[in-house]
Amino acid sequence: MCRGAQHVVNRILPAADTILHDHRVKFTREDIDSSELDRRRALYGPLTEAVRELVDATIRTEVDESVIREVHAEVAAAAAKLRAKQLDGAFGLRFTTGGESFAWGNAGIGLRNALAPPLSVESDASGLHWTEVTLGAPYEGPPGLVHGGICALVLDHLLGTTASSIEPRFTGTLTLRYRRGTPLGRLRAEARITRNEGRKTVVNGTLSDAGGVTVEAEGIFIGPATATA
Ligand SMILES: CCCCCCCCCCCCCCCC(=O)SCCNC(=O)CCNC(=O)[C@H](O)C(C)(C)COP(=O)(O)OP(=O)(O)OC[C@H]1O[C@@H](n2cnc3c(N)ncnc32)[C@H](O)[C@@H]1OP(=O)(O)O
What we know:
This protein is α+β, with helices and mostly antiparallel strands. It is 37% helix and 26% strand. The longest helix is centred in the N-terminal third of the chain and has 27 residues, at 34-60.
């Protein structure tokens, strides 16, 4: 998990059971240490990268029909092998014995989620939070442009992590202004807290390409009553 999110989780941990009970978040304490986590990271990370590659290759391939059929059978066989032993439901938010967190199914940052771009949030001492990401063919909406919902995913995650740098926060309201199409390719999103009122934190941010801002965002993030009680 990215540094910002780990900081949030460290704050959530003491109140986790209450928060999770209230919000039905799936939360698991695993009996593993950080070296085992590293071993699993090295195991699953490359698998997820290979699946991401497969998703992009599936969209863009122009090989012969016979090869498509062959690959279809191979992919179905691979999925059946993985299905032989499965979690009951989603991955949830997990912790090692040392309190390190891993949300490997998360749609924004999940190490085991090939749909995740994946995002990694950085921050500096001034309170600026940012993420840089390359969005390719799998994230297309209008031709050659990023899907509006994917822009929202990036901004929701970044603004949420920014809001949660003080206390854990859920997205209450997210308002986006799409100023122009966001081209597929390298992008940067930035965010800052602009207002803090008790359990409510307002965060403003932008998504930009090399030519400037494409999407402006404002989010109102709400802390669970139990986290600040
Ligand atoms: C915490 C554990 C996370 C674990 C993970 C860790 C990972 C760390 C990485 C973080 C990165 C996350 C980035 C993605 C973040 C999501 O994507 S979160 C998922 C999407 N959001 C949700 O599912 C939230 C669903 N909604 C809810 O759970 C509840 O409605 C809320 C938002 C917690 C508020 O419920 P509530 O506590 O009952 O609120 P309530 O007491 O009625 O109101 C409190 C105040 O908030 C205001 N308010 C309430 N709802 C709203 C709203 N929707 N809009 C605006 N204002 C509102 C009220 O007007 C009130 O204001 P005041 O009267 O005090 O001025």
